[in-house]
């Protein structure tokens, strides 16, 4: 059966509100200036530790403090400020009706990912869910893609659907094409420049893109 992997943040759900609020709380706890709009956007997608280090310029001890403050606020409820993108349930239902294997591969801790999926009614939509570990040892996209592929060794012609450059890069490490989710928070041109096989504007366009890549 064909295997389709999905990123979570910015692909299945619009998690920006909860992430932005939690980043603001973490910055305030560390006495940092209010993050800019561009900084907040850049925090959606990459591993949390990497975002605080590269986007906000924190050193390792402060990264650990920021992650702790972020997760406390996020786990207390901000994670659920992440509505489904329109058309996502219909997309998943169509792919399932076609007999595809579906898995989530996210840089978000897997515990949080499962809670969000349950909250938006997608807890049973996927054959497996793969994400980061809370200790940060597994957090990069290529690592979670590797876990998803290992879980489904018989999955045919795997493809990743994701919304940021790191999704494209993480898929390419394993020889997978990436369908760029153009409805997410990526900057204009980001997905194409990263090497996405195709960029689509809506979830409704994903099935045709998958067919084209697998033909």
Q: Would you summarize the structure shown here?
A:
The chain has 215 residues and is of the alpha/beta class. The chain has helices at 16-29, 37-42, 48-54, 60-75, 88-97, 110-119, 141-151, 165-173, 190-194, 206-214; strands at residues 2-6, 101-109, 128-132, 156-162, 178-181, 198-200.
Give an overview in words.
The structure is a single chain. The chain is an alpha/beta fold. About 45% of the residues lie in helices and about 15% in strands. It has ten helices and six strands; from the N terminus they run βαααααβαβαβαβαβα. It has helices at about 15-30, 35-40, 50-55, 60-75, 90-95, 110-120, 140-150, 165-175, 190-195, 205-215, and strands spanning about 1-5, 100-110, 130, 155-160, 180, 200. Strands 3-2-1-4-5-6 form a six-stranded parallel sheet, with helices on both faces. The chain starts with a strand and ends with a helix.
Poorly predicted tracts of residues: none
Give the helix proportion (percent range). Answer: 40-55%
User: Rg from C-alpha positions?
Assistant: 16 Å
Order of helices and strands: EHHHHHEHEHEHEHEH
How many domain regions?
2
- What general outline do the C-alpha atoms trace? globular
How many individual helices?
Answer: 10
Give a short account of the largest sheet: 6 strands, parallel
Architecture per CATH nomenclature, i.e. the level-2 architecture of the largest domain: 3-Layer(aba) Sandwich
Distance between the termini: 14 Å
What is the CATH C level class of the largest domain, in words?
A: Alpha Beta
Mean pLDDT: 95
Q: CATH-wise, what's the superfamily of the largest domain?
A: HAD superfamily/HAD-like
